[in-house]
UniProtKB/TrEMBL annotation:
GO terms for molecular function: D-lactate dehydrogenase (NAD+) activity; glyoxylate reductase (NADPH) activity; hydroxypyruvate reductase [NAD(P)H] activity; NAD binding. One of its GO terms (cellular component) is cytosol. Keywords: Oxidoreductase. CDD domains: GDH. Residues 5-319 form the D-isomer specific 2-hydroxyacid dehydrogenase catalytic domain. Its EC number is 1.1.1.28. This is D-lactate dehydrogenase. It comes from Mammaliicoccus sciuri.
Length: 322
């Protein structure tokens, strides 16, 4: 049997052609529409490697079905769609795409912060709706970012990249992490805080943390009560960090000012989601790493990881349980 790579999303031909040099390739025919579960399971039965997105669940059912699998190559830095422990038990290699998307994702988070603070989405809609008939001294007045206090929850590589971007804005930068990072404190002029202190002091709270059992639902009713009523929450981590019903209530009760989200709990967001009716909430479709250059780097890393696994060599960016 020829070794096969199943690619769960349509990718540029230049990358598919690289895979064809060492394996048979089976590519799903859509970039935007996820591969149906049944089709994914059926077409992975004879696959040696699958290149997946966060939409594909790699669980016990998958492993029982994909009996020839050697590697799961995830086109994302996160891997909460994969049962890594079970993969290790099955001697299946798992890889992700860390580091290459760090700067681009931080950039998107910074964009969301500025957009929410200065009410840019509302302003664009105001003009598009033909409402701009005159000028007023407080027309669509927003919040300043410069001179504010920004709290970063999760001081990994993306959190550090976000902190670097705040240097030119004369912000006081706080962070909370499961362990202190003294080197980052010195290099980036950031200050460690307990979670409660960070929430109490910050004008903007930025979530960049990975989703784990400990961080799931970390932003909830009790969390929001500890934030300033003028604070804005930015999430470029995972949707599961936020209890969405609690966020809606907090904004409606004016416990916090608003939120700007690259991620939601269930993606894509439903057409009738309350967020979409709230001027104080900005939602974009999980585009944190979505620049052409960065996505090309991510896909190339996946292709290179797949080739390494196929050649029985160590992959470039393996995922391992700590």
């Amino acid at each position: 049997m020829n070794e096969k790579v199943l690619v769960a999303r349509q990718l540029p031909e230049k990358f598919i052609n690289q895979i064809k040099e060492y394996a048979e390739v089976d590519v799903w025919n859509s970039e935007l529409e996820p591969m149906p579960r049944e089709a994914f399971l059926e077409r992975s039965q004879d696959a040696t490697i699958v290149i997946t997105t966060l939409s594909e669940q790699i669980d016990e059912t998958f492993f029982n079905n994909a009996t020839h699998i050697k590697g799961v190559v995830n086109l994302a830095v996160g891997f909460d769609n994969i049962d890594v422990k079970l993969a290790e038990e099955k001697c299946v290699v798992v890889t992700n795409t860390p580091e290459v998307l760090t700067e681009t994702t931080a950039e998107l988070g910074f964009t969301l912060m500025l957009t929410a603070a200065r009410r840019i989405v509302e302003a664009v809609q105001y003009v598009h709706n033909g409402e701009w008939k005159s000028w007023g001294p407080y027309l669509l007045a927003g919040k300043d970012v410069h001179g504010s206090t920004v709290g970063i929850y999760g001081m990994g590589s993306i959190g550090e990249a976000f902190a670097r971007r705040l240097k030119g804005f004369n912000c006081k930068v706080l962070y909370h992490n499961r362990s202190r990072k003294e080197e980052a404190e010195q290099q980036l002029n950031v200050e460690y805080r307990t979670m409660d202190e960070l929430l109490n002091e910050s004008d903007f709270v930025v979530c960049t943390a990975p989703l784990t059992p400990e961080t799931k639902g970390i932003f909830n009713r009790e969390t929001f009560k500890k934030m300033k009523n003028s604070a804005i929450l930015i999430n470029i981590g995972r949707g599961g960090h936020i209890v969405e019903s609690d966020l809606i209530e907090a904004i409606e009760q004016q416990e916090i000012l608003g939120a700007a989200l690259d991620v939601v709990e269930n993606e894509p967001i439903s057409d009738d989601h309350p967020f979409l009716k709230m001027d104080q909430v900005i939602v974009v479709p999980h585009i944190g790493s979505s620049s052409i250059a960065t996505r090309d780097k991510m896909v190339q890393l996946c292709v290179d990881n797949a080739k390494q696994i196929m050649s029985n060599q160590d992959p470039i960016t393996p995922v391992k349980l700590k």
